[in-house]
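Same chain as my last thread, 109 residues:
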Amino acid sequence: MKLTLIEEQFNKIFDFEALLEQSKKYIEKALQNSESNFLSDEANIDDDLLKEIRIEYNKTSIFINNAERMPYFRLEFYLHKSASVRPMYIYEIEFNCEGQFADEYFLEY
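reply #2:
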């Protein structure tokens, strides 16, 4: 099976555009509430700066044939300072094989 066919089926099964939009809104909400969630401990930056960050989708990683767990996937987003080209942070949202939220990760770029 060609990878483009897998991509098409994946996008259709998980309604990718809607999932992408929901994920961006989830990240926006997490950034807006950073003073009361895990981001306040993870990011050593001013909370006001977090609220101004631009969110840009980067990629989807699909994890299959993992002997220790069921297949899953992650959406990766770059978090940019308003005018910056280079991301400051990476925010990943992990979903299980059913497309349900499983975990989230916040990393420095």
